[in-house]
């Protein structure tokens, strides 16, 4: 089978090493004949062109001499008065030409002439205090600076002060945060937006590497940052941290976080999180049939006390969990808020212990109630015993 190769421009036949010689000879003959025909056409076209050294006179170009004769000399000049719609007969120094209804006439610049546009700063003479109205004098502004507030609109209007400028000066808006940015560099009061997860992931010193809003407040050598993740990041987390001189603290998540259904059902997850009644119900149901939830109410709980509850299992339970359940509002927790009870042991400094034997669950309290972080975040303090009970869930 003959391979049909051709040239790129004129498609002349080309030989191929895989073709039979007798076939390629015919292809070469066809290529040479095509080249001969194309060259003959080029030679004929070149014969009809003038030589490279030929010349023309101006008169050989049709209409050129007549057109040039109608043009003015290159060194000709005109005065303003020579223009048909300009009259400068009454002009004086420092006037400019202004368009009247019919002509351009001399005029002095007046404020009424400026109705739009902008001035370049270099074209405006320096404004001295003597040229300003009295209420804009430096002494008046200094004396009233402390009296200006965002709610004092009447004073602001009376003194012609720009409330928008005051707001921007007090809390300066920042720009969008680019890719590869280091949040340690944002130490000027203001707010900055990161609208891209990939840009956040490429940066450094983010709390969680996702898009969000960075708020910055700086006082001398101390900086406070708050970063709010956007809602699609998986929980609307809010983080805070601070800087003293060059030392940054670690980011702290101050948003409430709930136990997930997966962690509740599988007993996984080690972070301290908030339990809801629904999650406790899901955890009970995930244990399967034969589960007897046993509840013990600490209505008369006191320090350094021991409480027992019969479980009727006939043996030591192998799977059980104790929860603190809120019975009345305490530390911003609402009724029925639930969280795992801490197994700290009982001595002079620890607070709660839950254990089991073949017949009973035993709940012992220490010398003081447990510490508990507020449900809204913040410092921890001791709970009120009367506001809590213990729920023990066991596989019986």
Can you walk through the features of this model?
By secondary structure, this protein is α+β, with helices and mostly antiparallel strands. It has 4 domains: 1-33, no CATH class; 127-170, no CATH class; 173-253, no CATH class; 261-395, no CATH class. It is 19% helix and 24% strand. Strands 5, 6, 7, 8, 9, 10 and 11 form a 7-stranded mixed sheet that branches. It has a 4-stranded antiparallel sheet with strand order 12-20-14-15, covered by helices on one side. It has a 3-stranded antiparallel sheet with strand order 13-17-16, with no helix packed on it. Strand 18 (371-373) and strand 19 form a beta hairpin. The radius of gyration is 46 Å and the shape is flat. It starts with a strand and ends with a strand.
SSE series: EEHHEEHHHEEHEEEEEHHEEEEEEEEE
The major pleated sheet works out as: 7 strands, mixed
Please indicate the count of domains: 4
Envelope shape: flat
Question: Share of helix among residues?
Answer: 10-25%
Low-confidence runs of at least 5 consecutive residues: 166-171, 344-349
Number of helices: 8
Mean model confidence by pLDDT: 78
Structural class: alpha+beta
What's the total count of β strands? 20
Rg, Cα atoms, Å: 46 Å
Distance, first to last CA: 86 Å
In terms of DSSP E residues, the strand content is: 15-25%
List the helices and strands and how they pair.
Elements: E1 5-6, E2 13-14, H1 21-47, H2 64-69, E3 96-99, E4 104-107, H3 138-144, H4 153-158, H5 163-170, E5 173-176, E6 190-194, H6 197-202, E7 212-219, E8 222-229, E9 238-244, E10 247-248, E11 252-253, H7 261-266, H8 277-286, E12 291-296, E13 306-310, E14 320-326, E15 338-340, E16 352-356, E17 360-365, E18 371-373, E19 380-382, E20 388-395
Parallel strand pairs: 5-6
Antiparallel strand pairs: 1-2, 3-4, 6-7, 7-8, 8-9, 9-10, 9-11, 12-20, 13-17, 14-15, 14-20, 16-17, 18-19
